[in-house]
Amino acid sequence: MDLRRLASFLAVAEEGHFGRAAARLFLSPPAVTAHVQQLERELGVPLFERAPVRLTPAGHRFLGHARGLVDAANAAITDMADLAEHTDTLRVGVMGHGSAELTPAAIAAFRHLRPHVRLTLEALTFTEHTSALLEHRVDVAFVRPAVTDERITVDVLTTEARIVVIPAHSELAAAAELRLADVLDLPFVALPPHTPRPFTDYLYFTEARGGEAPRPGPDHAVTPQEVLMSVAAGRGAGSALSSFARFYRWPGTVCVPVVDAPWDHSVLATRTGDRDPHVQLFRGLARSLAPRFASGAGPGGAHPLGGQQDGRDQRDHHADAGAAPGGAVGD
What is the pTM of this model? Predict the structure, then answer.
């Protein structure tokens, strides 16, 4: 028996009016009328007199059954939701190579401490650095770039230099280092229109180009592999954090440091206010392991590939479990 029809029947019985019942259910009056008529055909008896609206004897008799069926369905849903909330599972999302070597280290540490918890991994595209969390498809996510959303809390894990990924046959490929002025006019691999603005700003060095969009290449990409295929074919360029070069050695591509680009972060993102003990443990492990995997010199120190860091203090971004959301990420 269709629960929507039962809900419409109960609302009309309690409101004594089809229009008020529809407003209560956020449905149109014709939809509520149709539900009741379908239920009457299914039962083979009229449930309401229409002028004025009131229950027939059959409607009075069916009222208790309808309430019992709806209550049972709601109880089943509540019971299963409670079970789902306590399932020993942690879903970890990873964009690209995550926070470099820290990512597998945090996962291994969690597995060591919670061997009974089922841990699953999900690869995230450039378009999913908040949506996967907000849609409850993952519980924690290694992402970048900056996330400014009150629904998301971030823990900054690494702070790294920036690089540009260009074709190996490019005249810039032989350079030991480049500056922003050298790369802003390159055709960058395009991103889908629904890509979050923070990621497009990060990938395209938007701040350095005064908010202007880059010259677009012919290809679209949502993963590092798609960027690298386009770059290797000489059809565009990409940008990343310095650790990208360690994880993606792709024939036909070259990674060159951009020495005057501000350093940027990788982060662990979680839903704000999520008190799940598995999430809190994973956050704590990632934060505690992060100093062992710090990339390059500290704030204000020498850039590992040349140049200077932009002076942002990574310590200011290490949020505790109750901290307000904020921070930065990237790929």
Answer: 0.65
